[in-house]
Write a structure and sequence with these properties.
Number of helices: 8
Shape: globular
Strand content: under 5%
Order of helices and strands: EEHHHHHHHH
Number of strands: 2
Helix content: 55-70%
Largest sheet: 2 strands, antiparallel
Structural class: mainly alpha
Radius of gyration: 19 Å
Distance between the termini: 20 Å
């Protein structure tokens, strides 16, 4: 089972009418087996202003500006909604053809909600939490499916996702990675190439040209592709961290923290699904 990167295009912070907001760019969402990456990551305007004017200006002291606490709280709510949806789906939907159908339906609904939010000029907590709930149902079903064949795979995937996220954050905060326009362009070029190759692979598998999943097989080649996908997820996390950091520095409105939470959730879902598949591959080779 293949997956596609949920965040090939992120809503970037921008200056709009005197205050900081998010640019609306077509956003890649996530639906299992259905890539919909569309436009490349746009360079963060905050980073441009920093390069031109030096250190970012101090954000105005006001309760209407986004803070790190806002991002943490909204991210916790969004990820918590995903977790609740996954737990309920796991507990109430036994592995069957019906549950697979519900999972696909939930993934499609999550895709639609994500795309609607992506094209909105303002964040909608209802859309974001609706996406999280349906994505959670999808994740719960596929996690139960993997667990039925590879016992403990979802738990290992959760630990792996946490490890990748923590390591990426530490590396970013330590300054070992500098998120520049060049860094973003190179990373996006690799990410777009990856999606195109996976799309071609999916077509070849669908028409019977490639067997056993092609590049996404449960073998050494599939493991390499999975590792690349996880590294791409870590790359997108660094873009998320940079945009959040810049948005806070330039006083983005508080409600933009919902979009920050939305972006982080998409990226973490991507990493989890790829990690789940990678765990299954290594378990199959034991």
């Amino acid at each position: 089972m293949r997956s596609s990167n949920p965040v090939f295009s992120r809503r970037g912070f921008s200056r709009d009418n005197g205050y900081a907001g998010f640019n609306t760019a077509p956003q890649a969402g996530y639906a299992q087996g259905n890539p919909y990456a569309q436009n490349p990551y746009a360079q963060n305007p905050y980073a441009q202003q920093t390069a031109q004017h030096g250190a970012p200006p101090q954000a105005p002291v006001t309760t209407d500006r986004m803070t790190m606490d806002d991002v943490v709280v909204r991210s916790a709510i969004t990820l918590g909604t995903v977790a609740v949806g996954a737990v309920l789906a796991w507990a109430l939907l036994p592995v069957s053809t019906t549950s697979y159908g519900l999972a696909i339906g939930s993934a499609l609904i999550a895709f639609v909600l994500a795309m609607v939010q992506s094209f909105k000029r303002t964040p909608s907590p209802a859309l974001i939490l609706g996406y999280a709930a349906f994505e959670g149902v999808f994740l719960g079903v596929i996690s139960e499916m993997y667990n039925s064949r590879w016992s403990g795979a979802p738990f290992q995937a959760v630990l792996g996702t946490m490890a990748v996220s923590a390591a990426t954050l530490l590396i970013y905060k330590a300054g070992w990675i500098r998120v520049t326009a060049r860094y973003a362009r190179i990373g996006m070029a690799i990410a777009i190439a990856f999606v195109l190759v996976m799309a071609v692979n999916l077509l070849l598998v669908a028409f019977g040209v490639a067997e056993n999943g092609g590049l996404r097989s449960f073998g050494p080649l599939g493991a390499v592709v999975g590792i690349i996908a996880i590294l791409l997820g870590a790359f997108f996390l660094t873009l998320d961290f940079k945009q959040i950091e810049d948005g806070i520095a330039y006083g983005a409105p508080r409600n933009e923290s919902w979009l920050a939470a939305f972006g982080l959730t998409l990226t973490l879902v991507w990493i989890y699904v790829e990690m789940l598949r990678l765990v299954a591959i290594f378990s199959s080779n034991d």
